[in-house]
Amino acid sequence: MATGRGAAGPTKRDRREEARETARLMREEAAKKAKRRKVIVQSSVIVGVLAVLTIVGLIVYSGVSASSNVANPKNMISGGIVLTQADQAVKSAAISGGDAPTPTTQKLDGKTAHIQIWLDYQCPYCDQFETTNSDQMKQMMADGTATLEIHPVAILDSSTNNKYSTRAAAAASCVANYDPDKFFDINSALFANQPDESTGSGLTNAEMLKLFKDAGVESKQITDCVNNQTYAQFVTNRTKEAVASKQLANPTSGGFGTPTVFVNGERYQGGFTDATQFASFVAAAVKDAGDSGSVTFPKAS
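Structure tokens predicted for Protein-disulfide isomerase (301 residues):
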């Protein structure tokens, strides 16, 4: 057996092969580490993207939920209630979720006035118009020569009146939903008992419910609806739309005010305390509109 200095060691070829194998193993280990780093980075990116998408999704969902969960009354799909008689409302589904109202389309026959009023129950000018023209509008409906579309809005809320404009419009919307054929009566009752705009604190919910009861409107559903202000957001949404509408803006002031009155799509700009003037305007608007086609107001923008 060979020993000592003369013993045989690894050849040059063996050392070269060993070096190559070591290099190969190092390359494989480096590749594995790079792959692990790539997986970690990709996972982090995916988690980050999912987190962003989740946040965006929550924001979008919250926005949709906030609008789609709004309680809207039945029989006010245009944002207002349409009456063909003082005791007969046009029935309709509620506005769906956060959808926009559907403007009313009326046929033109050369004899029927389609009267639309945007009003605030705290507005003294609205009270003047109501007091002056209520009886003749009621008679026009009885004669079959007019329909009346009432849009309650709230532009006169204050801390003094305890947001009476919104509360009264929401209460009226409760009646539109549950007892629509009595809407004309409660509309008149709210104006007949209008609090003073400057010093009044607004009617309480109990006082409004008493007025409704005296007008023949009473039910647990309406009581709960008024007390819970179920349709307050509906009123707020319709008010924002009215204020933003260029079609409803007063051409003189450039802004929205109440009462805003249209007949067959034509704005009334006369006095609020002159019944004869309003009656003449109604007759002229019917004639101007003609006896064919239809009128939709507000028009689609």
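The domain at 81-296 is CATH 3.40.30.10 (Glutaredoxin).
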